[in-house]
Design brief:
The chain is of the alpha+beta class. It has helices at 41-51, 80-91, 119-124, 126-134, 155-165, 188-198, 213-217, and strands at 15-19, 22-36, 56-63, 69-78, 96-103, 107-118, 138-142, 146-153, 170-175, 179-182.
Length: 219
Amino acid sequence: MRSGLNNSPPKGTLKKIKMSDQTIDKQEFNITVYTENQIGLLNRIAIIFTRRKINIESLNTSPSEIERIHRFNIVINESEEVVRKLCRQIEKQVEVLKVYYHTNEDVIWQELALYKVSTDVIAEKVSVERLLRENGARVVVLRKDYTVFETTGHREETDNLISILQPYGLIEFVRSARVAIIKDSEGFNSKLREFERLEPGEDVIENEYLNQGEKVFSM
């Protein structure tokens, strides 16, 4: 099995698709994109996936550790070869500074989930309160007609709480996109500073004719 990765993916994240005599291994990859914050960039990046008929499992954008630089976290289920080609295509965008890809074993990731349930049910069923506490959920809104709980964790953890609350009348559920931190990384900030040290920009030369337009262009 061709993988090129040291660690085996967790159960449920690796898929095999047989095409003629060749077997392609698919698993979840986290693509991290550092970009300038420009209008229209998200649409252009999404088109790169759409043209290749690749489904985006999760997409999150947020400010990064560097001022005025944003960070995209994109989760897809594909082979490493396809992911590598995608990253090269994304890096061709003018506003994109750098693109990385990692497996789930290479990152620390979490997803946030909200659950709305009937307050009457929670008040009557003590077991529900205990189950929520055991799953690390906390109350964010408490009203007479409903209560909203919040929990963070991996996909299987938030899914597990859905199955627990369904018998008690789960009214509404929503889950956020994935946020991820790369384990073995000093951060893009240090790489950017090192690049500036090795390839410093040219010094700005003061224009001697600046603010002297009348003298220079007078007839």
